[in-house]
């Protein structure tokens, strides 16, 4: 019999568990990834309180509450075809995230802003940006 994993270990990748606005944003980001053939995949959507607590306690998150818990955030992580990577210090991974960030801000963020939907990235977003430590993270600002 297979061992059951705790909800900390279970990652929700179901795009249908996002709020309607965030689902539209996630689909738009996935279109950018596909059009530009970028090495990213949707890694996580909604997150349980137990998982968030554990991520915070182990230092993988800097916040006790995340917009993942309400379905207003999604993480897009570098995928090399076999493994996920959060290695910001790897030149190719880093540059891929820079490109993704630029393209999403240019194509997705601008278009959604016209509809009154504001999006925030967890990567570097210009001078004075203090939320720049979670590059896979995109969220709808509610």
In short:
The protein has 142 residues and is an alpha+beta fold. It has helices at residues 20-35, 49-57, 91-114, and strands spanning 40-44, 73-79, 84-85, 119-121, 137-140.
Describe this structure in words.
There is one protein chain. The protein contains 3 helices and 5 strands, in the order αβαββαββ. The protein has 142 residues and is of the alpha+beta class. The chain has one domain: Muramoyl-pentapeptide Carboxypeptidase, domain 2 (2-Layer Sandwich), CATH 3.30.1380.10. Strands 1, 2, 3, 4 and 5 form a 5-stranded antiparallel sheet that branches. β2 and β3 form a beta hairpin. α1 crosses α3. The longest helix has 24 residues. It starts with 19 loop residues before the first helix and ends with a strand. The N terminus is likely disordered.
Our Rg estimate from Cα atoms comes to 15 Å
Annotated CATH topology: Muramoyl-pentapeptide Carboxypeptidase, domain 2
Spell the H/E element sequence.
Answer: HEHEEHEE
* Count of runs of 4 or more consecutive helical residues: 3
Number of strands: 5
Low-confidence stretches: 1-6
């Amino acid at each position: 019999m297979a061992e059951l994993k705790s909800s900390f270990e279970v990652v929700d990748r179901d795009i249908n568990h996002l709020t309607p606005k965030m689902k539209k944003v996630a689909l738009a980001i996935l279109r950018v990834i596909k059009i530009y053939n970028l090495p990213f995949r949707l890694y996580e959507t909604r997150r349980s309180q137990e998982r968030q607590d554990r991520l915070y306690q182990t230092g993988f998150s800097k916040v006790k509450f995340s917009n993942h818990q309400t379905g207003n955030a999604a993480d897009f992580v570098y995928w090399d075809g076999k493994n996920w990577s959060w290695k910001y210090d790897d030149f190719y991974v880093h540059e891929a995230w820079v490109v993704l960030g630029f393209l999403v801000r240019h194509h997705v963020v601008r278009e959604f802003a016209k509809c009154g939907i504001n999006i925030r990235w967890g990567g570097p977003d210009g001078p004075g940006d203090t939320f720049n430590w979670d590059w896979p993270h995109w969220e709808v600002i509610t």
